[in-house]
Amino acid sequence: MSVVQALLIALFVAAVESRALGYATLTMRFSPLMAGFVVGLVLGNMPLAMTTVATIQLIYMGVVAPGGAMPSEPCIASAMAVSTVIVGNLKPEAAVAIAVPVGLLGSYLYQLRFFMNTFAVTKMDACAVKADSKGLAMWIGVMPTIFSFVLFVPLMFVALYLGAPVVSGFMDTISNGPVLHVLGTVGGGLAALGIAITMHVIGNRKLLPFFFLAYFMQVFANMLNTQLTAVKGSFSVPMIFWAIIGVIIAVVYEQLTEKSAE
Prior knowledge:
2 domains; 82% helix; globular; transport; phosphotransferase system; sugar transport
């Protein structure tokens, strides 16, 4: 990994953690897929990046952030894990073993960001007393963003540029041993836990049938794909097909619920 690549990824993570781009960055923070996409784009290995981050995404499917704090930071975990896998050309399963501890450490960094913002809150109060609108804009929007960049950019840069090769080398040495097998098994359990939490968060019995409908449609598509591949060659169901089916189901459901409400 070059200096420029590590710096670009660190800047992206800092922008997400600081919410520099507004609500869009808040959504990126909760979605490891976005961090994996950026890492794959910067490091030039998009297929491996997306395959790797898909495993991480399953873990964070059901994670919620009450009050803005999360038990683990998906963006930081994904950026570090995907970078390590690509640098070391590791198997995607190794990303889980990296993402979990890194995400926990990232949550402490985010709490430190809250502490740093208390200095800005003091200045906000002083500006509010003076009715200083420009000062309020500075201490509400600009300075907290600067604090976040000062905190996250150096730490992420060092972790990526110096830490990723070391971690990838270590993971490569244990790739054929029982340690990585155990971590991979636990990672699979975490993915199942993420799906279970998502089902629990849905909580509405009227919506659960759609979850199971999507699951069995995917199973049926895989069976169909296997049969057609054996007969005629390569075949796959395009993603646009699932998107169209989802839109149709959503529209029908919305129409039916409107009629029942009336």
